Amino acid sequence: MQTPLKTCALKEYTAAESLLEEADSRWKQDETLFLLKLQLYHKTKNGWEIKKAVQQIKESGIYLSPSTQEVVAFWSGKSERQP
Questions:
Q1: Rounded to an integer, what distance in angstroms lies between the CA atom of residue 29 and that of residue 63?
Q2: What is the pTM of this model?
Q3: Per-residue confidence at 25, pLDDT binned at 50, 70, 90?
Q4: What is the C-alpha to C-alpha distance for residues 59 and 18, in angstroms, rounded to an integer?
Q5: What is the pLDDT of residues 3-20, one digit of tens each?
Q6: Are 42 and 71 in contact (CB under 8 A)?
Q7: What residues contact 29, with CB distance under 8 A and at least 6 apart?
Q8: For residue 30, which phi and psi values (nearest 5 degrees)?
Q9: Alpha-carbon distance 14 to 45, whole Å?
């Protein structure tokens, strides 16, 4: 049974995903868009979509700032940072 709060949150995530898809069709080469996708998929616990987004980032060939490179490495399981 979903509570009203969970239903509201689900609608917001669905709306966010829809907006990201629209943005992706307009600005495919924007690293911020990729980061937003990763954030959404992390919040919704969607590991499959995280993997797809990371693969898409790697195949895109766009310039990634050092901080975005770290994020991609983390989600790829190749982070060199030690806890």
A1: 8
A2: 0.69
A3: confident
A4: 22
A5: 544 444 556 667 667 766
A6: no
A7: 60, 62
A8: -105, 115
A9: 13
The length of the chain in residues reads 83
The three-class DSSP label of residue 22 is: helix
Q: What are phi and psi of 75, to 5 degrees?
A: -75, -15
Contact 13, 40 (CB under 8 A): yes
Q: In this structure, which amino acid lies at residue 35?
A: L
pLDDT digit string (tens) for 38-62?
888 898 898 998 999 899 888 888 8
**For residue 15, which amino acid is it?**
A
Determine the residue type at 40. Answer: L
